[in-house]
Design a protein that fits this description.
Blueprint: E1 2-6, H1 18-27, E2 32-34, H2 47-60, E3 63-70, H3 80-85, H4 90-103, E4 108-112, H5 134-155, E5 158-162, H6 169-179, E6 184-189, H7 200-207, E7 211-215, E8 218-224, E9 227-233, H8 242-252, E10 257-260, H9 287-291, H10 298-316, H11 323-328, H12 333-353
Parallel strand pairs: 1-2, 1-10, 2-3, 3-4, 4-5, 5-6, 6-7
Antiparallel strand pairs: 8-9
Helix pairs in contact: 1-2, 4-5, 5-6, 7-8, 8-12
Length: about 375
């Protein structure tokens, strides 16, 4: 296993080219970078630019991962650049991205089924859209991935759907098994599953055989009268037990890259990263919310609320700050980098405690 980061979530990443971001990652002891899409390496998919990024990653001893973007046909209009790559032909646009990835040896490609929206409660998630049922969105996503599967198979690629805020691990496993694990896998975001009321450890056990990419992050949950607030925290300060998750992932895939996903520098200390007055990001007490999670058993829900209780006990004991105190804390550039290194240190310690050797960080060059 190697421990790196999501490139675009590192402090001030927008100031740097992809090559510069790799060099900066090496300076901070990271072992690799994950870029959201190939377009973050080259906005025109220029072969020379992509090759330069690949070459520099290899020189520094860094892993290099990237993604495709949204694969839910009901969301692809939110990313018009994908259709534009195919001159109006969406499948051709995806093919072009996949061919560009394969040409520079990027074979694991992240995908997502939606993006969280700036609305209250359950309507922040496309799962609860009122114009198209979630079941129809899942079915359309499965059909589109089935269309892309032969391309991925020919190129030796995997498309790895993220445990994103709107989708459950139960649904992801069904998609992988329907489309086929030879072309479809999972990107495990260790904190996003909390937004679907899943215990991250139970989720890890469910999806481990299919996990091929990761977003390692943590979050705290806080009870409110209308649900739960979700607040991103440095790894180790929230509800996610990374120490319990790593052995599960390691047993299934000892070569898995661990890509830290940290708080956006300049963003608010909670998700969604909009207004501090947002109420419940997780409307778990609403009948409509519960009805929208048919796979969620009473046992899983009990395990989830035990996580909430245990974190409340840590807050009460003064081990970690409460919601308001953390939201009000400073968020300077120095604080942002401290968040990164605190998280890296926690993951390294958790791996060491389980006898999991993380490959050495990148060579500084």
């Amino acid at each position: 296993m190697r421990l790196g980061s999501d490139a675009l979530k590192l402090p001030e990443s927008a100031k740097y080219t992809a090559v510069q971001q790799l060099e900066r990652a090496a300076e901070h002891g990271l072992a690799g970078l994950f870029f959201r899409t190939l377009l973050h390496l080259s906005d025109t998919l220029d072969p020379g630019e992509l090759a330069d990024v690949r070459t520099r990653a290899d020189e520094l001893g860094l892993y290099l991962e990237a993604g495709l973007g949204k694969v839910n046909p009901y969301n692809t209009a939110e990313s018009p650049e994908l259709r534009a790559l195919g001159d109006g032909d969406t499948v051709a646009g995806f093919r072009r991205m996949m061919e560009a990835a394969a040409a520079v040896g990027i074979t694991e490609l992240w995908g997502e089924t939606a993006t969280i929206k700036p609305y209250e409660g359950r309507f922040a998630y496309d799962r609860f859209r009122t114009d198209v049922p979630w079941s129809d969105q899942l079915a359309a996503t499965g059909r589109f991935l089935t269309t892309l599967a032969p391309i991925a198979r020919d190129l030796g690629l995997h498309i790895n759907l993220e445990t994103h805020e709107e989708i459950t691990t139960f649904e992801l496993v069904r998609l992988v098994e329907t489309v086929g694990p030879d072309t479809l896998g999972i990107t495990f975001d260790t904190a996003n599953v909390l937004q679907r009321a899943e215990d991250p450890v139970l989720a890890a056990r469910r999806i481990a055989p299919y996990v091929r990419q990761t977003h390692i992050k943590d979050a705290a949950l806080f009870r409110r009268p209308d649900g739960l607030a979700f607040q991103m925290r440095p790894v180790g300060d929230g509800c996610v037990d990374i120490g319990a998750i790593l052995p599960i992932l390691y047993e299934a895939n000892p070569d898995l890259n661990l890509s830290l996903e940290v708080r956006d520098y300049g963003g608010a200390p909670h998700l969604p990263r909009r207004g501090a007055d947002r109420r419940a990001a997780i409307s778990v007490y609403e009948p409509e919310w519960m009805a929208g999670h048919p796979d969620l058993t009473s046992g899983e829900l009990a395990a989830y609320f035990l996580l909430v209780q245990r974190h409340e006990e840590r807050v009460a004991a003064g081990e970690v700050p409460g919601h308001a105190a953390y939201a009000a804390a400073s968020w300077t550039l120095e604080d942002a980098w401290a968040y990164v290194h605190t998280s890296l240190d926690h993951v390294r310690a958790a791996a060491e405690s389980h006898g999991i050797a993380l490959d050495a960080a990148a060579t500084r060059a």
